[in-house]
Each structure stands twice: as C-alpha cells, then as structure tokens.
Amino acid sequence: MRVTMIGHCTVLLEAPGARLVTDPFFGTLGHVAYARRRPPAVTREEVGHVDGVLVSHSHWDHIDRKFLRGLDGAAPVLAPSGTSLVMKLKGARRVVPVRRWESRKIGAAVVTAVPAVHLAIALGYVVQMDDLCLYFSGDTYHRPFMSEIARRFRIDVALMPVTTFRAPTTMGERGAVAAARDLRPATIIPIHLGIQPRSPLLRTGQSVAGFERRLREAGLKSEVVHLGEGESWDSAGAAVVNRAGLG
C-alpha cells in the first residue's frame, strides 16, 4: 500500500487493484475564516484515474466540486447516509450513501464506514487492501467508539488529525494521544494540517512535534510519519518519498 499526501485531508491510497482518494480539496485560497497554508501537491487533473472517493463529511475543505464533476461516472463516491443530496449538489454523480459499520468493495479494496463525531454528519473509513488495514478518521473528536474500531480491526496505519484550533473542530494533541491509545496503530500519519484560521487569536501552538512528544510521554510506540504535500509512505519499505506529478 502506498499513501500519498496531496494536502490537508486529501490523500491518495494505492494498492494493486485499487486507487482511492479521501476528502478531495484542491482549492488554494481557503475561505473567509480560514486560509490554506500550502497548495495541494498536484492539480485535480494530475491525480489521474481513481476507482473511488471516500468523503467523511460535507464541509468546504473536504469536498471539491470540480474534482467530483470530473470523475469517471462509474467511480463511486462514498458519503455518510443523509448527505446524498448535498453530495449531488456538490457535483458527485454516483453517490453511495453508507452507514456506520457498513462495508463496500471498491476494486481490490474493502471499505467499511466507521463512526465519527464532528460538527456535521460524519463518518470515518477503514480501508482493507494489500493485506493492510488503514483507518481514515476524517474530522472527529476522540470518543469511545475508537476502542470498538480496534476490536473489529487491527489498524496498521491511522490517518488522523493531531492538532486543532482554539474553537476545536477535530482532535488536538491530547485527544489524538487518547485515540492512539485506543486504536493502537503501528503508524500514524497526521492529516488536517493544510488550513489555519486567518485570525492569529484562533490559532494554537499545537503541532505534530507536540503530539509526538505527548505520545512518547504516554509510553505509546506508534511511529509518527509526517508527510508533506507530495510525499508518500510505502508499506513495502515504510519510506517517505517525493512524488511530484503522481497521476
């Protein structure tokens, strides 16, 4: 399995027989309250063919209308049940609504929707492919359901937020450590790092380094791999490589 950070929560997951994108967001400007810190590694067109898209929720920094409109009409867009109309208005043509613990097969991958708690109807996803199990949390807070995810799946890689803002929208450093304790992933890849509040008053000093320090202080052994835009983690060698122009 190869995991490539396109930017923010947009990640390309690749294995023989499956190519998936999470929470597509290719805008470069942000919006009135949040600025995009760095542009995505590639354009919408450079992503190339995908077999499916996993959408955790319908907030502006997790859905890209132009990307969804440009998808092959056969590619399913998995989204939380109850958001189908919104997804179609956002450009998705083949919306597949899913509920908690419901599974779908996309190519060689098996994708299971798992709980999430956010300021919108939300889900996370567990992706099983290439003999590995990856958890994509989307935007969520730490909650007891993470222990249930760990009971049902052995998580090899967890893509999850590890910092947040003064008005918390995801897990911060402490919540992410609690999530790591529950999930017990071998590897953690931080996400949701691509935007920040325009007002400095709403920012915090939380960072990936701060999360990793707390993780070690808690005695947890998960490896933390911080991917910059365009960088990949590959399970074959667990190496970080730069993949500019990944289509």
What does this structure look like?
Helix 4 packs across helix 5. It is built from five helices and 17 strands. By secondary structure, the chain is of the alpha/beta class. The chain is globular. A hairpin with a 2-residue loop joins strand 2 and strand 3. The longest helix is centred in the C-terminal third of the chain and has 11 residues. The mean pLDDT is 95. Strands 7-6-5-3-2-1-16-17 form an eight-stranded mixed sheet. A seven-stranded mixed sheet has the order 8-9-10-11-12-13-15, with helices on one face. The protein has a single domain, classed as Ribonuclease Z/Hydroxyacylglutathione hydrolase-like (Metallo-beta-lactamase, Chain A, 4-Layer Sandwich).
What are the main properties of this structure?
247 residues, alpha/beta, Metallo-beta-lactamase, Chain A, eight-stranded mixed sheet, 5 helices, 31% strand, globular
Put the structure in a nutshell.
The chain has 247 residues and is α/β, with parallel strands linked by helices. 16% of the residues lie in helices and 31% in strands. It has helices spanning 65-69, 84-89, 145-152, 173-183, 208-217; strands at 2-7, 10-15, 18-22, 34-36, 52-54, 77-80, 95-98, 103-106, 109-115, 123-129, 132-136, 157-161, 187-191, 195-197, 223-224, 231-234, 239-242.
